[in-house]
Every structure is written in structure tokens, then in C-alpha cells.
Design a protein that fits this description.
A hairpin with a 2-residue loop joins β10 and β11. The protein contains nine helices and 15 strands. The longest helix is centred in the first third of the chain and has 17 residues. With 373 residues, it is α+β, with helices and mostly antiparallel strands. The structure holds zinc ion (ZN) (2 copies).
Length: 373
Amino acid sequence: MEEMSYYEILEVSQSSDKSEIKKAYRKMARKYHPDANPDDPDAEHKFKLCNEAYQVLSDDEKRSIYDRYGKQGLEGMGAGGGRSGGFGGFDDLGEIFEEMFGGGRRSRQNPADMDKYPLDLGVEISISFKEAVFGCDKEVKFTYKKACGTCKGTGAKDGKLAPCQQCGGKGQVYMRQGFMTFSQTCPVCHGAGTMPGEACPDCHGQGFEEVEESVTIKVPAGVDSDNRLRVSGKGNIGKRGERGDLYVTFQVEPDDTFQRHGNDVYMEVPVFFTQAILGETITLPSLTGEIELELERGTRDKQQYRFRGEGIEDVHGHGKGSLIAQVKLVYPKKLNDEQQKLIEELQESFGIESKPHESVFESAFEKVKGWFK
Ligand SMILES: [Zn+2]
Ligand SMILES: [Zn+2]
């Protein structure tokens, strides 16, 4: 099979002009892009070919060499490779790539209008377990950014801006990896495409000043770690005076007694082994006061007792969780002579019942013997 020409790959005629080629490439690239054709080696190959074809046909010099001498003529220039001088020549590809898949980048129609920082602001505060359970009023101290009045947020002395040298004012730099081209926000101008000619003396070229403020917020009952509360209009202030929001994220300090899991609260209850055997009633602290725990006779280690409605108020008002008391059996580490005697007597009084392993293992002993006969 004869190799397809670059024109055939892009399905254009040999007389097509640049914009037709660009349009055709865009169509083909979209069709065969690996994202749209996962695990399809054929599509990947075609995508590769389209890129190769476009890089040649979109470059006047390469195209005319290709027209006259074919692919061989481009060897040594590195078909599909870049012109000397870095990323030049891939700008088109990068732009197309960005148009197709970029999406997220801020519009660049007027880079000078872009703020140097996001308007929304985040702050984290620590609250006690009790404050989280019952809610509270809390003062939050934070520092917000405000566009520098002297340079109107540009960071440039007298507001004079020059195009960024790194990205040539595009705000993006392009990198090639294999047959893919990736765009990245310019690390020098952070996407603005411009740089201060001379730094503003007041903000040292940053374009903003930092201001401390505090606000008292109402922390709702039931709030948990990593919950976020929006405080409207307390964020950073942009160039045009518009203000973002402040997002307060909570971190709840752990409590010595209670451990939270969702809206339920767990507590560990040490129970002496005799209490567990006898089934006593013991008094426990709860979130709101005290509760009585009636231990079952023969309570096991790690046995859980649930008290419905004694947990944490759901932060969205969906009722209360449970308090779960988990037993931790405690045994004496030492016995004095009298205790030793009493326990031995107790064990004897139970007879065979106090040696459950014997009845279980008796048959096992017999069976194992059989294995070696
Ligand atoms: Zn730049
Ligand atoms: Zn300034």
C-alpha cells in the first residue's frame, strides 16, 4: 500500500490555503484525539499522522519543500520537529490544542484587566470539640489582598506594562511531548502576558497590598473538620473594586473522651471484669450531661451500647446521631493471696464449665492422633 500524502491525511486538496488546512486539521485532530478514542492504537496512529501533516503543511517553507521533494526532502530538517529556536512553529498547534481541550484558562482578550490573585480567599480555623458540637460565635482573623492604589493593581510604575519576554505576551508557553503539545500558564507572568516595565515603588511590583481584618462568624452546631463556611464579600478586592468571598474551613480539635464519626460519637468505657460478669449499671458522661449504662450480664470486651439521639446534631438539621459506648474490659494485673484464693474457689465452683477448651479440643486431640497412625 502506498503511503498517504499529507494532503490525503488531512483530506484537503493540494491547492488548499492555510486556513483550510488549519480547519481540516482541527476536524481530524478532534476525531482522532486519544481522549476521544481511548485504547485505540489506530486512532492514535492517525492522530500522530495528522499532527505530522499539519506541522509540515502549515509551514510555508516545509510545505514547498514537501511539494517538490516529498517527505525525503524534509529529512534532516526533522519532519515533525520544530524549527530552530525553541517553541516557535508550534504556537498554532498549541492554540488549537487549547481551543479544543484547554477550556479552563481565563480569557486573554485583555490581560491588563486580569487580577494577579483570585478574589476568593480561604482561611482555616481551629475550634474545640465542644464548639463544634454546640456551635459558637467565633472571631476569624484573616489577611486579604487589595489592588495597590498607586499602580491600580498592575504592579508597574505609573501603570506602564510591557509584554512578557518569556511568552511573548501570550500568557502561555507550549511544550511538545511525543506527538502531543501541552500548554502551560507562563511561569514568569502567571498568564497575564504582561510584565511591569518598572516595578511600582509602593507594592514592589506585586500589584497588591495586604490588609488584616477580622469577622465574627456563627459556627453552626454539628460542624466537622474540613467543613467549609462561606462568608460573603470578605475575600480579596480586585482591581475594579469587586470583592470575593471568604471561605472558612474548620479543623476540630480532638476530645479526650469522645471520638466523632459522622454524627455519632464513640466513647470507650473501662469496665472491671467483675462488673461485666455481674451486669452492673454505671453512670457515664454524655454530651449533654450523664447517662446510665446498664451492662448486660456477661458483657464482652468491645461490646457496644448505642444511645440514640445522644450524638451530634446534624449540621444540615437532619436530626441527631447516637452516642456509642464501647466496653473495654479491665482485668487486675496482680492478685493478692486472698484474691487468688477467692478466684480459684470461684473457678472450682464452676467445675467443667470453667474449662471450655477441654471440651472443644478433646475431639481434636483424637483426630490429630489419627493422622500419624
Ligand atoms: Zn509570560
Ligand atoms: Zn503598586
